[in-house]
Design goal:
With 398 residues, this protein is α/β, with parallel strands linked by helices. The chain folds into three domains: 198 residues, Rossmann fold (3-Layer(aba) Sandwich); 124 residues, Nitrogenase molybdenum iron protein domain (Rossmann fold), CATH 3.40.50.1980; 27 residues, no CATH class. 42% of the residues lie in helices and 18% in strands. The chain is built from 16 helices and 14 strands. Strands 1-11-10-9-12-13 form a six-stranded parallel β-sheet, sandwiched between helices. Helix 2 crosses helix 3 and helix 15 runs antiparallel to helix 16. 40% of the residues are buried.
């Protein structure tokens, strides 16, 4: 079905609202999280058997298993993986937050940058082993300087993921998936030491769990089922648009593939080829940009005559792919930026995963007596708020 904007505006916004996490899922995840928090390993074993149909003998993967898996990676695959590692490393090295310090008028102000000490990376299971997600999460964490990096992935974990863990010198790997993995990271169990920060995408249950534990532990962003939105005009090549939508739909349940176009011809052709796509026919390119900002997609592809001209109009998106040769799959694997991006309209307030996601900024405030005298007006602000001891703590230094 093709929806028209603005005449079908109400239906379009209803579709956008449908991307929120259902309350029934939130309630189901709450039970899982509480069980793991209270019962530890036994709850993990129970949920793994229920959801993954596997009875775990050991939650943690041994270093010997990791090394054996690495040895079995094919030479050609290893070459491609190492090339991807090089690109991702080069990109993220440019995003390292740097400390700064300035001394003036008797005071020194600045920011100290520190890595988050212990982080947990969630690597989804599903139909295919997402080796790329391991690279896109672990490399920024390592560049940031995180001293402890734990990995969780649903069993059975693919040999290639285990092998890449060994290649990246990740030795703390657990066979845990779903909401139970997030709970183990957040609260710890007999086998899993709790972390300070959780990163990595997952299905709707993983995303709901991250949302629930946030506050007890830090999270990167809400990265749930995949999304792609394509803005296209009559200049767009049908085959490119079609495959951009279909490739995202390979991710399976919950994936959203949206085309917003000014071309009625393109809309009809895509409707006949991609039955699961949401297709919106807009009057102008400005309307396309407006609707894209309203949805705030994970991936935005711009297939128009002059894609660069639209960039100033785009406000909310995980990653932008302007131009018909900028396939999302290139960003998924090898371009450099992390493909762990906000979904579910959360790109309105979240950014994609980066080195800075794994770093903390600490404010530095140092005064001499000269500086206190220069800033003595703070006494009046303390007095204005009625905080007598605040006032006194400043006044005594003058």
């Amino acid at each position: 079905m093709i929806l028209k904007y603005p005449s079908d505006e109400k239906k379009i916004y209803e579709l956008f609202e449908d991307f929120a996490i259902d309350e029934k899922i939130i309630e189901a995840v709450k039970k899982i999280v509480l069980s793991v928090k209270n019962e530890g390993d036994s709850a993990i074993i129970e949920f793994t058997e229920r959801f993954d149909k596997i009875r775990l003998k050991s939650i943690k993967i041994s270093e010997e298993e990791l090394q054996d898996a690495y040895k079995r990676i094919k030479k050609g695959d290893l070459t491609a993986i190492k090339f991807s590692i090089k690109n991702i490393t080069n990109f993220h090295k440019k995003g390292i937050r740097k400390p700064w310090k300035q001394t003036k008028d008797g005071k020194t102000l600045g920011e100290i940058v520190r890595p988050i000490r212990r982080v947990g990376l969630y690597i989804p299971g599903g139909k295919f082993p997402l080796i790329s997600t391991l690279l896109m999460t672990a490399i920024p964490a390592k560049i940031a300087g995180c001293s402890e990096i734990a990995v969780c992935s649903p069993p059975p974990i693919s040999e290639c993921i285990l092998g890449v863990c060994f290649l990246l010198e990740l030795r703390e790997v657990y066979s845990i998936g779903g909401a139970q993995a997030i709970a183990a990271f957040a609260y710890g169990t007999e086998s899993v030491k709790k972390v300070d920060f959780i990163a990595g995408p997952g299905n709707i249950y993983v995303t709901a769990a991250k949302k629930l534990v946030f506050g007890d532990v830090g999270i990167d962003l809400l990265a749930g089922p995949s999304e792609v939105l394509v803005i296209a005009d009559s200049f767009a090549k049908q085959e490119f648009v079609e495959l951009e939508l279909l490739s995202q739909l390979e991710h399976g349940e919950g994936t959203k593939a949206i085309l917003i176009t000014t071309s009625n011809t393109l809309a009809k052709k895509i409707e006949s080829k991609v039955s699961q796509a949401i297709i919106i026919l807009a009057k102008t390119i400005d309307d396309c940009c407006f609707l894209s900002n309203e949805f705030a997609p994970e991936h935005l592809c711009i297939h128009t005559k002059n894609p660069e001209s639209l960039l100033p109009k785009i406000e909310s998106v995980g990653a932008i792919f302007p131009g018909q040769y900028s396939a999302v799959a290139l960003g998924d694997y090898i371009a450099g930026p992390s493909h762990v991006l906000p979904t579910g309209r959360s790109a309105r307030f979240f950014s994609g995963l980066s080195v800075s996601s794994f770093q903390k900024k600490i404010s530095l405030i140092s005064y001499t007596k000269e500086g206190v005298l220069k800033d003595k007006s703070s006494i009046f602000l303390a007095e204005l708020e009625g905080l007598k001891r605040h006032k006194k703590s400043i006044k005594i230094r003058i």
